[in-house]
Every structure is written in structure tokens, then in C-alpha cells.
Design brief:
With 575 residues, the chain is an alpha/beta fold. It folds into 2 domains: 315 residues, ABC transporter type 1, transmembrane domain (ABC transporter transmembrane region fold); 237 residues, Rossmann fold. The protein has a 6-stranded mixed beta sheet, with helices on both faces. Strands 2-1-4-5 form a 4-stranded antiparallel beta sheet, covered by helices on one side. Bound molecules: adenosine-5'-triphosphate. It is found in: Cell membrane.
């Protein structure tokens, strides 16, 4: 448990002082909570020895009043310090996690970690934020109360004190065993909870496909299966814990009975005076309640430990190194605008790009074409440093992109993906993300260039229309044009474009094409190309197949060869 305290303190960062303050309050509160019984013992003892005076009674009464007031005050302070600290720590932690996620390689998000991130943000952090601080405060107070009561029992008489100590020791041994079981079970429960989150997310994300293939029944069954497994693991957890909690309760009952019997026996044989017997009886029923409460919360500790493990695991994921201090020069001074220099890349162990070398001159267009799975998207992603190359290097104007701060690299590049993502925010804010300090006029201008101004103005709230859940429903082509307006506003010198393969309606396609033409004017363009018109216009075409550049040249040059490119064009001509 002490290890958990120190983990929480480590996590609490600049709020460490608050947490320590809360623990000191918990300590004071546990002492104050026992004071009334101690004062009662003083009264009894004075009464029995006939030493109790009126003034003494008055002082004890005043002390009792002071103790009650002080206890309420300390309790209030403890609560304030704890709960506020929980919320403050996790507000910071969420921001830290957000920043951290932004620096992880894309591979982290595509390897089944979405469920983990959701459960860290939605379950673990909320649990620790809301429960951990008060639980830890309570446990601290229970621990100290147990210790104070034990010391007081020894002060009254060492023999019942010894029984109390033996019970406390035995209880801690049982609690250790209980903890082990709970830890083992907690891991299984968490795995199941991650599976459940994954299943719910994948069901919600894939609902379109599920419906269109009439898989609702089958997929709902899978989801229900996950719900059932979650219920069963929780019930199994409770079942496995019950024998341990029963064992502890029996031990406390036997301990109380033994102390009771021994003290009465001692009093009858003259070994214990009456006020001390009363003292023992006053304390004995309360003696093990802090321990009971302490170990009652033990299962929460294991959940908390497991939650902290997961939060730390996500926070400890290796970020893409971002220590570079070099700057990309605004002019190339002889180097190509972009250069892939003997680049090799592997997703984990699977090498998918082998020794790729090519360069792109400023304001030219390079088209990547080739069979599916050849490596086109991977090349585009390496330029944006979504991953780092395994060997070789990618340079922009002669500077290795790994030597440049990520934020600066991102200023150089705009990406237009097939899958558009708009934030749940106004259209205005979605566009202005491209340049947060842009004037209103610039945003309207970008929207006009991206051929979306007219349809935005036709919406009831115009640019203030909220996109997404509960907001306006836009067509795929409209969303695409808004995302292009965002890129136009950003005005980065390099554009990576993943050309749409899915057919949008002809009207939309021509608008999108016009918007793209505006976007790429005077830019260096790397395009994953599917449309013959685009490919023909390219200054150079790279045919990527099996992770290699199998052909390279202009359309006319490549058509003269009897290779993959010519087949590729012939097939497209047929459609
Ligand atoms: N995140 C990933 N993790 C592991 N392997 C991946 C990942 N993304 C792509 N791959 C693999 O890398 C290889 C190249 O894929 P890539 O997406 O770059 O090809 P592509 O030419 O863009 O294909 P397409 O035209 O179908 O989009 C493929 O074998 C693919 O299975």
C-alpha cells in the first residue's frame, strides 16, 4: 500500500503538496476520532479513583467540544484537499496524455490500441480521479486508527494488547493472500473490459458495413457475448474474494471474544482494575473496525494499481523522437525539395519498403502508382513522419526531417486524405484550424477557392453551422472540400494527396477537382494517384510494386516501355 501512496505522489506532480497535506489531515483526523473514547476513559478512571473534580469535568467537556469542532474542520480540509487534487492532477494528466498521443507513431493507433486508450481515458483516469484520493485518505486514516487503538490497548494492559497485535498480524497475512488473488483477477477483468471497449467501438464504427451485409444478428451476438463475459468475470471476482473476507471477519470476531474473555478474567482475578476493564470494553468493539474497513477497500487498491499500470503504460510508450533543432531552409540552395535517400522501412518485423530513392524538385508533381499493397501510402506517411525510416533518410531542402521539430515539419506539409475528418465544431473553426490567426476574410477566400463557400452560405447558420453529431449533415464531397479549404488556408509548400478511388457523384468530383487544382497551385505535390488525367500531368511517375520503385519516368517515357505502367494505363482506359 505504501508503494501505491508513493506512486500517487509521483503522479501528482505539482499537486504533491496538496496530497501530502491531505494525508497529514487524515492522520490528525484519525487521532481526533479516538479522543472522545480516551476522554471517556479519563472520566471513568477519575470517577473510580474519586479524583474527578468539577473543574476537571469542565475541562474534559471543553476538550470534547474542541475535539468535535477540530475533527469537523480537519475532515473538511482533508476532503477539499483530496477531491480538488484528484481533479487537478487528472486535468493535467489528460492534457499530458493528449500531447503524448500526438507524438506517438501512427503504428500505435493501428495496432489495436484504441480500446486501451479509451479505457485509460474513460475508465482508469475517472476511477482514480474520483475514487483514489478519498480511498487513499480513508486508508491512511484506517491504518493510523488501527495503530493508535493497538497502542492504547497495550497502554491499558499488555495481555489484551498482545492478542490485538496477534490478530492484526494474522489479518495482514490473510490480506496479503487476498491481495494476490485480487491482483490476478483484476488483470483478467481489465483485459475483458478492454475487449468490451474494442467490441463496442468496432460495432459502432462498422455499423454501416454491418447493416449493409445484414450482419446485425451475428455482430450483436458477438457484442452480447462480450457483455456476458464481462458480467461473468466480475461475478467470478466476487466469488473468489468472498472466502478471504469471511476469513477476516471470523478472525476479528474470535479476537474480540478472546480479548473480552481475557480482560474479564483478569479483572475477576484482580489483575486489571475496573476503569481499565471499562477502557478495554470501550475500545474492543472498535478495535478491528479500522482493519475491517482497510482490507474492505483492498480490492479497490488492486484495481487502482492496475489502473495506474495502464495509465503509465500509455504514458511510457516511446514517442517519435522530437529533439531536432535544425530548421528547414526556406530556399533549397541546390538540394531537391524532397529526397528519399535509400529508404528502407518495416512495420515491426515486416519490411515493406526496400531501398527507395527518388527526389522531387520544387513545384513539381510526383505521382505514385502501382498495385494495392505496393507501398504508396507508406511512402507518403514517411514524408509526413508518421513513422520513422528504418534506414536511409528523407530530406526536405537538404535537411533530414528527423532533425527538425515535428511542429515545424508539419508547417511544411498539408495532407488531403480520402477519409476526411472534420471536428465537431463550426465550419468556420474547422477551416480556421489551418491557420488559427487567420482573418475572417482569409477564411472566406479559402472557402471560395475550395468551392465550398456557396453551399456553406446556403446552410441556415452559414459558417457557424456545427459539423458532426447533432449538427449539419454534409455529403462526403462537401466535407472533402471543407478539408481542402483548411489546407488552402494553411498554405504549406508541400502537399500530399491521396486521390479518391471511391466514386463521388460527377458534380462533386468536378468541384473537388477544382478545389484541388486551387490547392496545388505553386506547390510541390506528392500524389497517390488513381485518375489517369492526374497521372498524365505528373512531372514524374513512380511505379511502386512490392516495396520497390519498379519504373520511373513521365507518362510518355513509361508508355514506351512494355511494363507495369502500360498495363496499368491500359486497364484504366477500358473503364
Ligand atoms: N499499419 C500497418 N501495419 C502493418 N503493416 C502495414 C500497415 N500499413 C500497411 N501495411 C502493409 O504494408 C504494405 C504496404 O502498404 P501500403 O498501404 O503502403 O500500400 P499501398 O500501395 O498504399 O496500398 P493501397 O493502394 O491498397 O492503399 C502492405 O503489405 C500492407 O499490408
Amino acid at each position: 500500500m505504501l508503494a501505491l501512496f508513493s506512486r500517487i505522489l509521483k503522479l501528482s506532480g505539482r499537486y504533491k503538496g496538496r496530497i501530502q497535506g491531505a494525508f497529514v489531515c487524515a492522520f490528525l483526523e484519525s487521532i481526533l476520532a479516538k479522543m472522545p473514547v480516551f476522554l471517556a476513559f479519563l472520566v471513568l478512571s477519575g470517577f473510580y479513583q474519586k479524583t474527578l473534580t468539577k473543574a476537571g469535568c469542565l475541562y474534559i467537556g471543553l476538550a470534547l467540544a474542541a475535539v468535535v469542532v477540530l475533527q469537523a474542520l480537519v475532515h473538511y480540509l482533508c476532503d477539499r484537499l483530496q477531491s480538488a487534487a484528484g481533479y487537478m492532477i487528472f486535468a493535467d494528466k489528460r492534457m499530458e496524455l493528449g500531447g503524448h498521443l500526438g507524438k506517438l507513431p501512427m503504428g500505435y493507433f493501428t495496432s489495436g490500441n484504441i480500446g486501451k486508450i479509451s479505457s485509460v481515458l474513460g475508465t482508469d483516469m475517472v476511477f482514480i480521479e474520483e475514487a483514489a484520493m478519498s480511498t487513499l485518505g480513508n486508508m491512511m486514516s484506517y491504518m493510523l486508527s488501527a495503530f493508535i487503538l493497538l497502542v492504547f490497548m497495550f497502554f491499558l494492559d499488555w495481555r489484551p494488547g498482545l492478542i490485538a497485535a496477534a490478530v492484526t498480524l494474522l489479518a495482514s497475512v490473510i490480506a496479503k493472500g487476498m491481495n494476490k488473488v485480487s491482483l490476478k483477477e483484476a488483470a483478467g477483468r481489465q483485459d475483458q473490459s478492454e475487449h468490451l471497449t474494442d467490441a463496442v467501438l468496432s460495432f459502432a464504427e462498422g455499423i454501416g458495413v454491418i447493416k449493409s451485409y445484414n450482419l446485425i444478428g451475428e455482430k450483436s451476438e458477438e457484442l452480447t457475448g462480450n457483455f456476458r463475459r464481462s458480467r461473468d468475470t466480475s461475478l467470478a471476482f466476487e466469488r473468489k474474494m468472498t472466502p478471504w473476507t469471511r476469513g477476516l471477519n471470523i478472525l476479528y470476531a474470535v479476537g474480540i471474544a478472546a480479548i473480552f474473555a481475557l480482560s474479564v478474567q483478569l479483572q475477576l482475578s484482580g489483575g486489571l482494575s475496573l476503569p481499565y476493564l471499562c477502557g478495554v470494553l470501550l475500545f474492543v468493539f472498535d478495535l478491528f473496525s479500522p482493519l475491517k474497513a482497510l482490507y474492505g477497500e483492498a480490492s479497490r487498491l488492486t484495481v487502482m494499481n492496475a489502473a495506474l499500470d495502464r495509465i503509465e503504460a500509455v504514458l511510457n510508450e516511446t514517442e517519435l523522437p522530437d529533439k531536432g533543432t535544425a530548421h528547414i531552409p526556406s530556399e533549397s540552395s541546390g538540394s531537391p525539395e524532397i529526397c528519399f535517400d535509400h529508404v528502407t522501412f518495416a512495420y515491426e518485423d515486416k519490411e515493406v519498403l526496400h531501398n527507395i530513392s527518388f527526389s522531387m524538385q520544387k513545384n513539381t508533381m510526383t505521382a505514385l502508382v502501382g498495385p494495392s499493397g505496393g507501398g504508396k501510402s507508406t511512402i507518403a506517411n514517411l514524408l509526413a513522419r508518421f513513422w520513422d525510416v528504418k534506414s536511409g533518410k528523407v530530406t526536405i531542402r537538404g535537411t533530414d526531417i528527423r532533425d527538425v521539430p515535428l511542429a515545424e515539419l508539419m508547417e511544411q506539409i498539408s495532407m488531403v486524405f480520402q477519409r476526411v475528418y472534420l471536428f465537431q465544431d463550426t465550419i468556420y473553426n474547422n477551416i480556421s484550424m489551418g491557420k488559427p490567426d487567420a482573418a475572417e476574410k482569409e477564411i472566406y477566400e479559402a472557402a471560395k477557392k475550395a468551392r465550398c463557400y456557396d453551399f456553406i452560405m446556403a446552410l441556415p447558420d452559414g459558417f457557424q453551422t456545427v459539423v458532426g453529431e447533432g449538427g449539419a449533415t454534409l455529403s462526403g464531397g462537401e466535407k472533402q472540400r471543407i478539408s481542402i479549404a483548411r489546407c488552402i488556408l494553411k498554405d504549406a509548400p508541400i502537399i500530399i494527396l491521396d486521390e479518391a478511388t471511391a466514386s463521388v457523384d460527377t458534380d462533386n468530383e468536378s468541384y473537388i477537382q477544382e478545389a484541388i487544382n486551387e490547392l496545388v497551385k505553386g506547390k510541390t505535390l506528392l500524389v497517390i494517384a488513381h485518375r489517369l488525367n492526374t497521372i498524365r500531368e505528373a512531372d514524374q511517375i513512380l511505379v511502386i510494386s512490392d516495396g520497390r520503385i519498379s519504373e520511373q519516368g513521365t507518362h510518355d517515357e513509361l508508355m514506351e516501355k512494355d511494363g507495369i505502367y502500360r498495363d496499368f494505363v491500359d486497364i484504366r482506359k477500358k473503364f
